[in-house]
Amino acid sequence: MSDAPLTMRAYGRHLFICTGDQCNGDADGAALAQYALEQLGERRKLRNPERVKCSTVSCLGVCQRGPIAVVYPEGIWYSQLDHDLVEQIVQAHLINGEPVEAAIFHRLYPVDQEPEYAPAVRGDQAVNPIELQHDQAVEQLEPIVVAGTQLHSTEEKQRYREQVRKLRKGKKGLVIVNTGNGKGKTSAALGVMTRAWGRDLKVKVIQFLKHENAKFGESRAAAKMEIEFGGTGDGFTWTSKDLDATKAKALHGWELAKTAISSNQYQIVILDEFTYVMAFGWLDVNEVVAWLATNKPELLHVIITGRDAPAALIEHADLVTEMREIKHPFTTQGIRAQIGIDF
Ligand code: FES
């Protein structure tokens, strides 16, 4: 038996998932834990660079909201686990260090006061030499140095993101554009809003040109669903004498949109009638596209609606749908907008 001192690398994050049979949810905790391990599988071949560990525990004591997952050292609790949420927790929280805010039901520590993610968790300096021999092939890979959740250089960040990207197995936050002269652009976006709500995803809707005090069916529904749904006048103060108020509010809306998109608090952000702000020349489409390309989180979906989507936006988007009017009751029968159908 070797007298060599045993060295261990610190764990970065530790995920616990309950497997008791008391939980209310349909999902099976053991199967979800297995799924979490599968999600981490590729990274384990890379010697688990973030030193993530996944364990099962019989019951975490919150069965009525189960299955439950807890991530340490932050002490962040997630409830009502399903496969989608496990995937988000693994990719966003365990690997990227960004808790899945929308799914948290309890924090052990106040935001920003959580214990630090173990520094240099890859632990290359402290690796057991025996382990090094076994891992020689993997060791050819350049190490990723993680300090806190921050990676120091742009090159490191890019390499890290590339690895994460591969693990996401084709998942991507889409830029979706609903344009064209036919009815249904906003309706389609609101359909996604409802679908996402049904999946417990966090959605924010910003309406660019509609009157901010309007109480349309969709804004009433959003209020009942507790979805953040607002106009561009939210928080707006206007002093400029050079812009008309509509334009100034629209530009303010873009600032609200940028804040929402870069906040990492939502899974879907809908910018309703945003194409007009660009089509009217109030905002340079190239500026919008460049900002989205740089700042939109990888898994966030952004949906933009409105006629006359500029070519550069169409070029940048992942999914573009043109609503084409074939027949409309107003043009053929003079029937105006009706409650529940149009507003
Ligand atoms: S069995 Fe899941 S919390 Fe009790």
UniProtKB/TrEMBL annotation:
PANTHER family: CORRINOID ADENOSYLTRANSFERASE. It comes from Herpetosiphon gulosus. The lineage of its organism: Bacteria, Bacillati, Chloroflexota, Chloroflexia, Herpetosiphonales. This is Cob(I)yrinic acid a,c-diamide adenosyltransferase. It holds the Pfam family CobA_CobO_BtuR. Gene3D superfamilies: Glutaredoxin (3.40.30.10), P-loop containing nucleotide triphosphate hydrolases (3.40.50.300).
